[in-house]
Amino acid sequence: MTSSLPCSVASRLFPALKQRNFRLFWAGQCVSLVGSWMQNVGQAWLVLQLTHDPAKLGIVGAAQFLPMMFLSLFAGPFIDRIPKRRTLIATQTALMLLALALALLTATAVVRYWMIIILALLLGFVNLVDMPTRQAYVIELSGREHLMNAVSLNSAAFNLARMIGPAVAGLLIEGIGIAPCFFLNAISFIAVIIALFVIDAPPVVSATDVSGPAKVLESVREGLSYVRERGSILGPLALLAFISTVVINYNVFVPTFAEGPLGLGASGFGFLMTSMGIGSLLAALTLAVRSSKGPSPLRLYGGAVGMCLMLAACGLQRSYALSCVLLGLVGYFTITFSASTNATIQLRSDDAHRGRVMSVYAMVFGGVTPIGALYAGFVTKAAGPGLCMALSGAAGLAAALPFAIGALRNRHAGAR
To answer: What is the pLDDT of residue 2?
Structure first.
């Protein structure tokens, strides 16, 4: 009796895990994402060790997301038309091979900055398809009624990995070097590839015609019209686009803030990223527990306000301990905002347009990163990491506050 109690509590709090296919996919992601975060930290530290230039770190970030910036919208029609499991097996395999290539180049000491740029660009082309496909596939595995729970659990997996991966990467880098971070990432993709092979969910595809360039362009225009005509989708996406450009540049902000004003090494940088992961994980679990109520506009826009405030505060101080706390809060509010946005727009979309809507989401969440990374890299070089973080937080706050005030007014009007 008592042994079944934890299981019954887990089923009640995380109903999406009762779905076999989602459970398999989620477990594979839990393993693979740890490796991905190890590679993120290792790659950032490798660039700084090779160049000692935050602007060049920003250029790597720009290269990685450049394909998504220009081509994301054109991926949407194919995501709607091709079975998503088949697509993901191909993209995850490609990501594994790219990680292995970076590992071999680093281990043999032949890696150069231009090689990292090329690999980052290739990674961007794969993620152009992989990211929106994974997002759109979740509802096929969990069911519409458990989507918020599934999105929150995916965020929990992502941020559990953010908590573990950077800390392990930092210790590995200081202990035996950077290359093991990339080797372990390559190995980690095996888990999600195996999960995809054993999933037995029936494919959901639309009748989207992708038989030629004209048909693809017509489908893209239809998808954009679909988004534009629905304020409940357009509003969150517009705010996400701005904040992704100006605020969510943590791959530039955190390593340069760690190396510069805080004077930390690789392990200190890793634990700053882990602090963000802890906050993000707590947010994801909180959203999962509250998922039965669905996504809340006030929580969505309030998360944006909190994220910007905490980032600005972090940039204005120089304490390592306080930086860990503030970055933990940045992580908490970032996930509150982004996961709520994800669930909101998916629930407002129908099956025929979801791939295209999520390709727009991918573009405004990751596709604007080239602009954001260049902005963060060059402003950090000119003004310093702390001031850049403070200015970015203030700009994001100015954009988010009107949305949050509107959501608060709507809540009060509904209560009356």
So the answer is: 46
Give phi and psi for 83, each to the nearest 5. -55, 130
* CATH architecture label of 15-198+213-411: Up-down Bundle (1.20)
Which pLDDT value is given to residue 414? 63
> Which residues lie below 8 Å from residue 229, measured CB to CB, with a gap of 6+?
none
Which residues touch 345 (CB under 8 Å, ≥6 apart)?
Answer: 233, 236, 237, 357, 358, 361
233 CB-near residues (< 8 Å, 6+ apart): 227, 344, 345, 348, 349, 357
- Burial category of 237 from C-beta neighbours within 10 Å (exposed 0-12, middle 13-18, buried 19 and up): buried
- Give first-to-last CA distance, the chain, whole Å: 45
With a cut of 70, which residues of the chain have pLDDT below it?
1-11, 206-209, 293, 414-416
Q: Mind listing the pLDDT tens digit for each residue in 140-197? A: 888 878 888 888 888 888 878 877 888 888 889 988 899 999 999 999 999 999 999 9
Here the tokens at position 92 are 């995850």
Whole-number pLDDT of residue 372: 87
What are the sequence ranges of the domains in the chain? 15-198+213-411
Match 């941020």 to its residue by tokens: 159
Which three-class secondary structure state does DSSP give residue 202? coil
Place of tokens 């690999």: 119
Task: Tell me what pLDDT residue 336 has.
Answer: 93
Q: Which residues in 194-353 belong to E strands, given as ranges?
A: none
Q: Is residue 111 helix, strand or coil?
A: coil
Q: Are 55 and 186 in contact (CB under 8 A)?
A: no
Contacts of 115 (CB under 8 A, 6+ apart): 105
Cα(347)–Cα(139) distance, integer angstroms: 9
Side chain identity, residue 228: R
Distance separating alpha carbons of residues 20 and 26, to the nearest angstrom:
10
CB of 193 within 8 A of CB of 44? no
User: DSSP alpha helices (H): ranges in 199-265?
Assistant: 213-228, 231-246, 250-259
Element at 83 (helix H, strand E): none
What is the model's pLDDT at position 155? 83
Alpha carbon distance 72, 7 (integer Å): 40
Each as own residue / partner, the long-range contacts of residues 2-10 (CB below 8 Å, 24 or more positions apart, any chain) are: none
Number of Cβ within a 10 Å radius of residue 350: 9
pLDDT digits 0-9 by tens, 5-34: 455 556 677 888 888 999 999 999 999 999
